Amino acid sequence: MKKKLFITRKFPPHIVEPLKEFYDIKQWEEEEIVIPREKLLAAVADCEALWVTLADQVDEELLVHAPHLKLVTNLAVGFNNIDIKALRKRGIMATNTPGVLTNTTADFVMGLLLATARRIPESDRYLREGKWKSWYPMQLVGKDVSGSTIGIIGMGRIGQAVARRAKGFDMKILYNNRRRRHEAEEMYGFQYVSLEDLLKQSDFVVIMTPFNDDTVGLIGAEELALMKDDAVLINASRGGIIDENALYETLKSGKLWAAGLDVFEQEPITLDHPLLTLPNVVALPHIGSASLQTRTAMLMLNVKALTAYGQGQTPSNRID
Ligand code: DGY
């Protein structure tokens, strides 16, 4: 008898197809709309494997509804949507997608940093709205990236890839991380500093740390107050790491040059969110890893894990 797999989103059929050899598959048939919670809870009742996106919460409540569940595979490297402790208690495995999105996300972070510093989205709006009447010296002037100081909070795989790119812009690289990265320090000249020093000294503060109990609200009013008056804050990790109200108040008061945000406390962010009223906020819909190649590679990593489990093997990329 085939194992039962539930997929919480419509994924490309050619990617799902090979799994039919091992699984009896049911799937939420919408590509853009998140499966309503009550439908998800009903759908997991008989499934042994569950393939989710970062928009689905796999928590105690869901597990109670999924007595046969043995494997959860997550279409993301971040796994704050999964209660790993609750899974572990029940002997359920989880897998994610590390490695394949490192370069794509790091490229994107540099893009967001440049777009924010140099006011690129704002300038595009300015032109389309017919505001471009002439060229003048202080028109849409931005902030230089080359030669400035970047402070990276969270020096994992993606943080290091951002740092290597920043070197190409002759940036001085400061970082803060749970563990020192001695090898990277020696190889690339990254400099480890306390969070306080990083905030005080950086022209660009880039958040690359995972979202968990230690990092929730890590950047609040006090931390923002430590930053340089014309610093730029970039977040392409998870929304809850920054206190959005504090960020809004700080930007509104005229402190900070700008913020570039690809992630929000609540996603999608509502259009009446105060941050969206500020011209110096670049706001994007969580697209850090969104290249065709990388999203395909992420899906294929999940397929690999599901295939291994379907064949009775231990899946790779297990979250421990
Ligand atoms: C992740 O993988 O955690 C990203 O946020 C989405 O690619």
UniProtKB/TrEMBL annotation:
Residues forming the D-isomer specific 2-hydroxyacid dehydrogenase catalytic domain are 7-319
Q: Which UniProt keywords are present, listed alphabetically?
A: Oxidoreductase
Q: Which Enzyme Commission number(s) are on file for it?
A: 1.1.1.-
Q: Does the keyword Oxidoreductase apply?
A: yes
Where does the record place the D-isomer specific 2-hydroxyacid dehydrogenase NAD-binding domain? Answer: 110-288
User: Sorted alphabetically, which InterPro entries does this protein's record hold?
Assistant: D-isomer_2-hydroxyacid_DH (IPR050223), D-isomer_2_OHA_DH_cat_dom (IPR006139), D-isomer_DH_CS (IPR029753), D-isomer_DH_NAD-bd (IPR006140), NAD(P)-bd_dom_sf (IPR036291)
Q: Which Gene3D superfamilies match?
A: NAD(P)-binding Rossmann-like Domain
Q: Which Pfam families match?
A: 2-Hacid_dh (PF00389), 2-Hacid_dh_C (PF02826)
Tell me the protein family, please: Belongs to the D-isomer specific 2-hydroxyacid dehydrogenase family.
What is the protein name for this chain? D-glycerate dehydrogenase
Task: Name its species.
Answer: Lysinibacillus zambalensis
